[in-house]
Amino acid sequence: MIDFYHAERQKGIQLQSNPYNIPNLISLARLLIVPYIVWLLLDDDFALAFYLIVAVSISDAIDGFIARRLNCQTIIGHYLDPIADKALLVALYVTLSYKGFIPIWLVITIVSRDALIIGGILISNILNKYIKIRPIMISKVNTVFQILLIVYVLIFHLMGSWQHHLVQDGALVLYTLTFLSTFASGITYIGIWLRNIHKSS
After folding, report:
1. Residue 63 CB-density burial (10 A; 0-12 exposed, 13-18 middle, 19+ buried)
2. pLDDT band, very low/low/confident/very high, at 193 (cuts 50, 70, 90)
3. What is the pLDDT of residues 87-122, one digit of tens each?
4. Which residue of 15, 82, 183, 200 sits 20 to 30 Å from the alpha carbon of 172, by its own alpha carbon?
5. How many Cα atoms sit within 13 Å of 67 on the Cβ side?
């Protein structure tokens, strides 16, 4: 079973039980604004969508800083923060794929990896197995590539240069790097999950 509380206590972090604080409200706001950003992209208002994405990204750093600075990290915050991040990324990839900027095969790969991870978490909880969640380097690299690709698409579309052959070549490179890092991180997480299940059985 996944236990964020135990994992953070091992790192010397005392999680608070009261969920009503500024960092959690910021995370909740990030989550609630995702549908509006999707609507803006579907309505071809890429400029406002881009500014909101930048604001959301900045707020992500701010809420983490406030939580650590004021020692108000909470159990729900450790779930809410990554959920808000993942919801935005997946929504952006699905929407940009629908608009024709990102190939569907890449979106399927990303969503499938996330579904496998969530499925592993659910199975572990059903089996009452303890699994330590730790960020791995390839997953961090994958997140960087995912974000870079979104920024790349939005900036060059706003500049009116998306159809330029050099821009398309750059996009193909980012498609490939994002796919490879997504696939590698998915395989790595599956291996970690299998080892943990075996150890706890």
Report:
1. buried
2. confident
3. 999 999 999 999 999 999 999 999 999 998 888 878
4. 82
5. 27
